[in-house]
Amino acid sequence: MTEWWAELAKLGPFVATTLLVHGPWSPLFPAAFEPMLLAFGKLYPPLLIAGLGAVLSVAMEWLNYRLYNWMSELKRLEALRARAVSGRLVQLFGKRPFLVVWLFALSPAPDWGGRILAILAGYDIRRYLLAFLLGRLPKFWLLATIGEALPISTSAMVVGGIILTIILLSIGLWRHAHLPRAS
Known about the structure:
By secondary structure, this protein is mostly helical.
């Protein structure tokens, strides 16, 4: 039994990273999770990594949905929400919401795009979470399986992921700092 707990404890960094990069701050970490899936897919069965990653990310998605929904109802954002709700994207989303959320979760498109559309359209949170789970499972499994097959060391994958995240975060912060401000 002690060996089982010791093995489980080795998944701590994967659990922590999953929660971090899928939380409310996920737009700051584009492509940060994929290297972790590749690395841990080399260390553990890809289906285990995919299942654990998908369940944890959906748990964070529940938090994201609640937080973003609360933020969208703030008085200062009422006009923005009203314009967005009447916009074409939200109307298109309303035709096939489950499919749209599933595609956001399955594809490399930023997940927060589907989240924002779902919130603006008032999409049911249970269906939203199910669509995300069903989209992330195959995506995460595929990446973990690729990681298992890649002839690159696990540490090189993790270091590469950290470097990529720092570069992308730096570019995003630089662009934010240098964008012209509306008066």
